[in-house]
Amino acid sequence: MATKGQYLVTNTVEDCTSLVQRLEAARSLLWRIVNRMEAVGAPALDDVVFENDYTKADFIALYQALDALPSFVIDDDTRDKVFDLLSSIQ
């Protein structure tokens, strides 16, 4: 029978492994969004009619916010802590 500490560590490692996989998937999606916008360009939005008071400026602000995210979606210090745990346990 596992101790509470073993239970805590084992489940945290499993969840961190899942977290890394999801963050990598999110990073891939962000890369596609940013690269598509850079390739097509903001002028392509000139003829788009947005609904419910959403505007071209809102869309560009979203793109800029996504583009400003760290490459791993979380800050480097947190990323390093996750990988330190995973490399120490696995």
Give a brief rundown of this model:
With 90 residues, the chain is an all-alpha fold. The protein has one domain (4-89).
Question: Topology of this structure?
Answer:
Blueprint: H1 4-40, H2 56-67, H3 76-89
Can you walk through the features of this model?
Helix 1 (4-40) packs across helix 3. The radius of gyration is 19 Å and the shape is elongated. By secondary structure, it is mostly helical. It has one domain. The longest helix is centred in the first third of the chain and has 37 residues, at 4-40. The chain has helices at 4-40, 56-67, 76-89. The chain is 70% helix and 0% strand. The mean pLDDT is 90.
Highlighted features:
mainly alpha; 3 helices
The average pLDDT value, as a whole number, equals 90
Unreliable stretches (pLDDT < 50, length at least 5) are: none
**SSE string:** HHH
Radius of gyration of CA atoms, rounded to a whole number: 19 Å
| Outline type | elongated
The termini sit apart by: 20 Å
Structure class: mainly alpha
Largest sheet: none
DSSP, total strands:
0
- Percentage of helical residues? over 70%
